[in-house]
Target: Hydrogenase expression/formation protein HypE
Amino acid sequence: MKTIEMAHGSGGQAMQKLVADLFMQAFDNPWLAEQEDQARLPLAELTASGDRLAFSTDSYVIDPLFFPGGDIGKLAICGTANDVAVSGATPRWLSCGFILEEGLPLETLERVVTSMAATAKAAGIPVVTGDTKVVQRGAADKLFINTAGIGAIPAGLNWGAQQISAGDVLIVSGTLGDHGATILNLRESLGLEGALTSDCAVLAPLIAPLVNIPGVKALRDATRGGVNAVLHEFAASCGCGMEVVESQLPLNPAVRGVCELLGLDALNFANEGKLVLAVARNAAESVLAALQANPLGQDAAIIGEVVERKGVRVAGLYGVKRTLDLPHSEPLPRIC
Model:
């Protein structure tokens, strides 16, 4: 079995062959083909789309590398593309950096890169520059990836949590906790493989129609920390409170079962293909209809509202409200 060796990160022949035979072929595009130390990108394409850049970066260390609905490669494309897209920008270009552990099966790397390339191509977001490093056996766990992305924000669009005010409506774009529950199921061998699948997806096509709807205030993709973390971020930025209704949360039956079995809250589970939105009340139905018109948002639902009273709360059975605290740490490390 062929494996990654220290020579694959040395800059010599082994590294050149890896780059040429794997990365250049998988990510093939005109910018990468120039083989310079940087991608030389046309500003005209950006300025035609907006007046500000959205720029984001994220690193991916998920364990296991492969899971129902995705893998670390697909995740590395989707996660960064979504961080750019929630600004209202169209993700335009990506970079990627690999940290490889000595001894990693080459077949594993090829599988990850192939998945990355397929996801990027399907989304129309080329990977235009990158880097590869190899560390000694034991200095990393198999494979880590960093991606960064840029896009242009349309002129006049100012989505952001500081725009939120009391009376706004809170919406999620679909069922919650699918990714977190899927990873937990694999790690703990709960035996629910057929019923749980990660929601890992590029959300730019879901977000694009919202640009033309007045009253959209803020969007976040609910990754680590789940919806709960987003609600706390919204509350801290706007100075208002967030209240959600437990019975209105869209949950897959399998996710609900995992939560009941282990005493966990789906609001804390990571998602990799779901949005949390704050919108003006008079825009809520239009936003909901736009989301539900896309397969990625078919289960979108209104889950609560923004209130004057500070804090984050959830209304449970019989309307009794409880404070929704932010956990001290991620209940499931290396979730993305």
Residues 161-323 form a domain with the Phosphoribosyl-aminoimidazole Synthetase; Chain A, domain 2 fold (CATH 3.90.650.10). The longest strand covers residues 90-101. The chain has a mean pLDDT of 95.
